[in-house]
Amino acid sequence: MTETAAAIAEAVRAGRRSALSVAEEAIARIRARNGAIGAVTRLLDDRALAEARAVDTIVAAGGDPGPLAGVPYGVKDLFDVAGLPNTAGAAMRRGAAPATGDAEAIARMRGAGAVLVATLNMDEFAYGFATVNAAFGTTRNPHDGERLAGGSSGGSAAAVASGMLPLALGSDTNGSIRVPAALCGLYGLKPAHGSLAMSGVYPFVDSFDDIGPFATSIADLKLAWQVLGGVDGASGVRVARLGGWFEANISTELVEAIDRLGAHLGGLARVEFPEVDRARSAAFLMTAAEGGARHLPELRRRPMEFDPATRDRLIAGAMLPTPHYLAAQAFRATFSGAVSALFEQHDVLIAPCVGEVAPLIEDPFITVDGARVPARAHLGRLTQPLSFIGLPVIAVPLYRPGKLPLGLQLVGTPGREGALFALAERLEADGVIGFSPPA
Question: Boundaries of each Amidase domain copy (predicted)?
């Protein structure tokens, strides 16, 4: 069984294990396993060992290094790491000026005693749901190496699911934490927009970008969230399921799993968001426009240095007329108001993360309305409407030992994240959701 972050921290604080030995074991696991997975882009041996020794020094002096004492973790390769270029997954940034300091999230993790061990693979500039990267390779799903890990935080998800690390940080713009969490069978958090510090994180779309953790237990996820700055407000747990858009184009086994979960909870009312298709389109448009505008100077100066799969999408976004962007932005306010009304009656809404199991790397498509569409652009069709209005979401894995993972979204409202964690804790305790290690 994968060792939890909480168990590691407790053992290190009590002096039963040294943080140095934990770090050395994590480094050894990465060296043994990463070749088959392709999750790690840089192994930070020297830094990890130094941070681990610092934790041990605090313990030896009778101090408490923090709630993540000695816990090894990795970060998506768009967090500033002092002394290293922030590549944002792009070959053209390998020669960027080294970061002068750590991202705020890394500083908070270090302050809690965690030990940074690696940077992790991603789609270039976080634009995709596949973690197929022309420069740094494809990250493979630990449950089946022939399948995608999802993206754009695929390296973070695969590093945790494969047991290389107990925790990892990623970013989520339109589903980039929730999609790989679902496909790799993990817990992942997309926090309420703007609720966690983004300083030192390479930006993609300011309107939607957020950071969050991956973990193999809801307790570890909550612990990391609190370290990063999450505040656990009290809340009830009135639950419903999202229908309409969120029930179309999903696999039969996923429908049956949600039905069973509903029965386990005593039956769930169905609710629907209005005009979800329009919300998803508006989010798609805003993403393309903001991403295109951000990268336009480099697109003009050195277009051939971009990953072709990223470059063409960014160019298309940069060409979108401003009135279209403004119309999408205006609709966001309308959509947010309509969704907020539903949360007057419900604390948590349940929906799938992805409609099916991970696609094959050699056949990277999913089926939507009877048509095969590219997974890189469309795996987030169920996550994107939620990012559009900044809702907090926990991705939870259905407990499926020996089967390819499927995941659900527990959707809430800002300031009431406690309801999401409370429901996840109950479902995990009941054996409905939970991490199943790769066979």
Answer: 23-420
